[in-house]
């Protein structure tokens, strides 16, 4: 769970201090600790300042882009994380000092920030051209995974004697007979469609797959950390043109910008400036100086993507 934001555990802890009154937070035999005393102590720390920065940013992002991020989008990404970690999901959350609720809060914050990046970053034709060089639209393949190279070679040999019209059905039979991939063998080895941005598949596997045209299979076994694969291309639409894939290419450039600190800094500066932020606590008056002192144009060039 890559996080640009600080851990929300601390953020949620300090939300209750908004009133900053004399309510008692804790008592000891040496005296009590009040909200105001806790606040005074916390605001002097770097972590406390980060929490305030994040709370301010969340407020202005919600105001400016809240209508563009739905609960459905947050839930979808949450479920993706949950499926990714499977049975270890709860322990991963615990180790990160988070709950399911705080994770959803963070997901929403990141989605809001992404909307801000989309709104403030201008993607150039040059960047689209660069992204297109490594781009491969979604393809659908089937594969047979075996532990021995000789077994993979036997499968390939059998396929060579198969008529093109019977290729898929023969491949399905071989997948059920030979494949050690229990998740796909009974589905003829079919995998979910993937493109060049996929990070779940082995890079060697993807490289071999992208070279195949529809109804072609690998002429030699493809070796990965999992064993030997025979790959059959079920559907490859071809690379097409930049114009045909402009929306997806733009999305990929924006995703890259979400990992670039310079771009994010510039975008946050614009968002905060538009949010008309005013710090009332004199001890914290310079907390946003790194952002609010930044002068920038109405659109930020996503220079990181053209590096």
Structural commentary:
- The strands form three sheets. This protein has a three-stranded antiparallel beta sheet, sandwiched between helices.
- The protein folds into two domains: 8-125 and 245-306, no CATH class; 136-235, Chitinase A, domain 3 (Roll), CATH 3.10.50.
- The chain has helices at residues 8-15, 35-42, 46-65, 71-85, 89-95, 100-120, 125-133, 149-160, 167-178, 203-210, 246-257, 261-274, 289-292; strands at residues 24-28, 31-34, 121-122, 140-146, 222-224, 227-235, 300-301.
- The chain is mostly helical and 307 residues long.
- Helix 1 packs across helix 3, helix 3 packs across helix 6 and helix 7 (125-133) crosses helix 11.
- Mean pLDDT is 88; it is low at 1-19, 294-298 and 301-307.
- The chain starts with 7 loop residues before the first helix and ends in a 6-residue tail after the last strand.
- It contains 13 helices and seven strands.
What is the distance, rounded to the nearest whole angstrom, between the alpha carbons of the first and last residues? 25 Å
As a percent range, the share of helical residues equals 40-55%
Report low-confidence residues grouped into runs of 5 or more.
1-19, 294-298, 301-307
Shape: elongated
Instruction: Give the total of domains.
Output: 2
What are the secondary-structure elements, in order, as H or E? Answer: HEEHHHHHEHEHHHEEHHHE
| Content-based structural category | mainly alpha
Instruction: Specify the biggest β-sheet.
Output: 3 strands, antiparallel
Q: What portion of residues belong to β-strands?
A: 5-15%
Strand arrangement, major sheet = 4-6-5
Query: Could you give the count of β-strands?
Result: 7
- Overall mean confidence score, pLDDT: 88
């Amino acid at each position: 769970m890559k996080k640009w934001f600080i851990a929300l555990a601390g953020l949620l802890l300090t939300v209750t201090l908004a009133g900053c009154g004399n309510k008692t937070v804790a008592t000891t035999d040496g005296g009590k600790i009040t909200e105001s005393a806790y606040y005074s102590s916390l605001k002097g720390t770097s972590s406390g300042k980060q929490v305030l920065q994040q709370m301010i940013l969340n407020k202005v992002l919600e105001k400016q882009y809240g209508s563009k991020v739905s609960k459905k989008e947050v839930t979808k990404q949450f479920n993706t994380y949950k499926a990714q970690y499977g049975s270890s999901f709860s322990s991963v959350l615990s180790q990160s000092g988070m709950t399911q609720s705080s994770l959803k809060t963070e997901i929403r914050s990141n989605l809001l920030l992404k909307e801000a990046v989309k709104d403030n970053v201008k993607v150039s034709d040059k960047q689209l051209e660069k992204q297109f060089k490594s781009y491969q639209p979604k393809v659908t393949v089937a594969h047979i995974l075996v532990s021995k190279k000789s077994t993979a070679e036997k499968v390939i040999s059998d396929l060579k004697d198969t008529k093109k019209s019977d290729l898929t059905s023969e491949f399905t039979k071989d997948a059920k007979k030979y494949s050690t991939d229990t998740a796909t063998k009974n589905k003829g080895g079919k995998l979910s469609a993937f493109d060049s941005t996929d990070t779940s598949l082995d890079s060697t596997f993807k490289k071999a797959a992208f070279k195949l045209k529809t109804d072609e299979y690998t002429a030699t076994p493809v070796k990965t950390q999992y064993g030997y694969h025979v790959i059959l291309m079920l559907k490859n639409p071809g690379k097409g043109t930049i114009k045909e894939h402009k929306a997806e290419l733009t999305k990929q450039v924006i995703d890259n910008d979400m990992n670039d600190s310079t771009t994010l800094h510039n975008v946050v500066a614009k968002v905060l400036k538009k949010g008309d932020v005013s710090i009332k606590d004199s001890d914290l008056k310079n907390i946003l100086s790194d952002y609010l002192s930044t002068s920038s144009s109405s659109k930020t060039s996503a220079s990181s993507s053209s590096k």
